[in-house]
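Annual report, structural modelling task.

Input specification for the 6-O-phosphono-beta-D-tagatofuranose complex:
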Amino acid sequence: MTPDALRSLEIPGLARFESGPGGLTRLAVTTPLAEAHVCLHGGHVTHFQPRGQSPVLFLSARSFFENGRPIRGGVPVCFPWFGPRAGQPDAPAHGFARLLPWEVESLSIDGEHIVLAVLRLAANDETRAHWPHDFVLRHHIVIGQRLTMMLEVENTSREPFTYEAALHTYLAVADARAATITGLENAPYRDKTDGLQTKVQPAEPLRFTGETDRMFENTRATCTLHDSAGARRITVEKSGSATTVVWNPWIEKSAAMKDFADDEWPRMACIETANAGTDAITLAPGAKHAMRAVLSVGK
Ligand code: TA6
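The model returned the following structure:
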């Protein structure tokens, strides 16, 4: 989109487009309710901070901000596959949606100072080279005291397609070693740190005691991250999502990631809202599917 087209969408004093890290264009929202940044690269929410709170999303100090590379932190949009692509080790992890520039379809504010930005990614020659289907993604981002993200997938092909998707949310915590996650008690999961073996979360909160990478399929529960060291809770409610992924890279994996500082892992925890694995979605021609995550902060 041209700078003039973006400027015409701005809401004076509340929502504007600016050059962010790496010169990537981002929407900067500052209202009485919250601050937020949304990078057009990847349709990527990189910052959300309700008034009176510290930032809710973790963003690595080492993140790349380059076309073609994922941003480390915030809420990466994973589509049309999750994780490594089956049978194609050279394919970009988590799909191509987070690597491409998105358009701004609309930007508005309501009477309660809640901002709605709708970002759009449609199939093009680059995406078709990876994945031979026509689609439109719309990312509805609602910025108020809470952050609501709704990822809508539309099949504009003439044939059905099956996809995986995730809002790969990196939450900011004061110390992951002292944090717990409730909402997943007794739920089965596939343990990515142990050959994707199926295990069951005990009837107790999930704690981080090492690299943690758990894919809870067929779960629609609200999860709450209890950040005891930060004296706050972050709740992730969801709809239209059957998979929840919980991830912390811990020490060794952090050291192996160029876009992640070695000492950052205690300050983040991913609670990802997804449809992946056996929860992959098949869309008929012309059909749409919406997946929503709502982040809220409490004491
Ligand atoms: O969601 C967990 C996960 O699949 C981990 O296995 C780890 O790979 C993480 O995503 C980050 O993936 P990325 O491709 O962004 O480095």
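The chain has one domain: 3-298.
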